[in-house]
Amino acid sequence: MALLLWALTLLGLVGVGAGLRPRKLESFRSETELNHLVVDEASGVVYLGAVNALYQLSADLQLEQQAATGPAPDNKKCTPPIEASQCHEATLTNNVNQLLLLDPPQKRLVECGSLFKGICALRSLRNISTRLFYEDGSGEKSFVASNDESVATVGLVSSTGPGGERVLFVGKGNGPHDNGIIVSTRLLDRAEGREAFEAYTDHATYKAGYLSTNTQQFVAAFEDGPYVFFVFNQQDKHPARNRTLLARMCRQDPYYYSYLEMDLQCQDPSDAQAPAFGVCLAASVATTGAGRVLYAVFSRDGRSSGGPGSGLCLFPLEEVHAKMELCVPCGWGPRPHKSFPCGSEHLPYPLGSRDGLTATAVLQRGGLNLTAVTVTVENGHTIAFLGTSDGRILKVYLAPDGTSSEYGSIPVEINKRIKQDLVLSGDLASLYAMTQDKASLAPPRTAPQGRAPVTLSHDANETLPLHLYVKSYGKNIDSKLQGGAGAGWGAPAWDAGSH
Predict the structure, then answer these.
(1) Is the pLDDT assigned to residue 437 strictly greater than 80?
(2) Please, what are the domains in the chain?
(3) What is the average per-residue pLDDT within 256-261?
(4) In whole angstroms, how far apart are CA 370 and each of 27, 33, 122, 227, 390?
C-alpha cells in the first residue's frame, strides 16, 4: 500500500516536470440552471436536462440539438391540461427537469418536468426535438415526478423480468401539492388499455402513510439482479432527526409485497463519539472484486458537535441482501403469520427495519461537502471520483484493506457546487460533471507529452481513467508491489527535459 501511495504522488511530478500547462476543460454553458446529465455509452452522446430546456451534445460537448420544455402557464393547484377558463391562477411557470433517463433498447429518452403535476414525455435519442409520446390530459394517473422544484425525483428504466415490459421505476418526495405517492412502477408503452406513464398495475404504487410526520428526499435509484433499490433521506419530526433509508423491492412484484426499508448510517472515523454523518447527498454502485458495492457520500452540518464535514461510506450489497433476507424473502405475499418474521398477520404492508447497516467512512473531509460520487474498477483497482461543494473533483484510490488515498483533484469551476450527476464515459476515458449552469468534460486519458503510461495493470496497453499515470523505470505498479521494497523503488528515473 505504501509503495502504491508513493507512486501516486508522482502524478504531480510528472505534470510539473514535463512543463505541462493545466488543460482547459471542454465545457458547455446553459442559459438556465442545469438539472440532470446522462451519457449514452454506445454513441457517446451527452444529454442535459435544464430549466425550460433539453440539450443533446456530442461527446466533446458540442451542441447538436436542443428542445424547449418551458415556461408555460401553470399553477400547482390546477390539474392539466391548463386552460385559462378553468385555472384562473395560472401564470407563466418555469419547467425544472426532474428526471432524465435513457432507454437504449428502444432508442428513446425519458424526461419528466415539474410542470403540469410532473408529467413525462418520451423523445428520440437521435433527435431530442422529436417527441415520441406526450399526453397532458390523462389526469392523476399520469402524474409521475414531483411538481415541487425543491423535491427530488429519481428513477431507472428496466424490465419487469426476462422478456418483460419496459417500465420506469420512480422514487420521489412529496411537496404540498403532490399526490402522496413516493414509489411507483410506470409503463413506458401502451398495454391493456393503459397509456405510457400510467402505473404498471393498480397496486404498483407506494403512497407513504406517514406524510404528516415525515418528509422524504430521494437521492438515487439502482438495480441489482432481480431487485430495484432506492436511497433516500427521511426527515422525522417526532423526534426531529434525519434518517438515510435504503428501500428494496423485486422488479417482478406488481403488488409491492416485497417492498422493504432499512436504515444506513455513516460514522466519522476520527471520533467514535461524534454523531454520524446525517444526510446522504449522493450515491453510486460499482462492481468490485468483492462484489457489488454501494458508495454513498454523507454530510454533517455545523450545528452538530462534530462540526461541518462529510464522508464516503461503503455498503457491500451482499451484506445489504443478507440483512434484508433476515426480514423477508423476495416475492412474499399474503401468507400465514409464521411467514413474516419481521411483521404481523396483517401483512402485506411495507416493512421497515431500524436494525440497518452502519459503516465507518473510508474518507472524510471537514469544512466542505462531498456532493457527487462515481466509482470505477479497472484491473482490480478501485478509483472514486468525488464532487465537492467548492467546485472540484477529488480522485481517490480505495484500497482493498479499507483505507483510501486522495491522489489528485480536477478544478471544474471554483466555488461552484458539483451537482449530483457525475458520469464516466462508456470507455472510462473521460468524466462529465455539472455545476450551476455549466457541463464540463474532464481531460481524456492520455499520457503527458507522449510519455508511455505506467499503469495499475500487467498489460501496458490498459490504462486507468483520468491521468492515473506514473513514470518509474517503465515498469507498472503491480510489478513493483509484487517485487516489494527491493524492486528498485526510488526517485523517478527520468529527466523532464529529455522525454
Answers:
(1) yes
(2) 1-23+443-499 (no CATH), 224-411 (2.130.10.10)
(3) 85
(4) 22, 20, 33, 27, 9
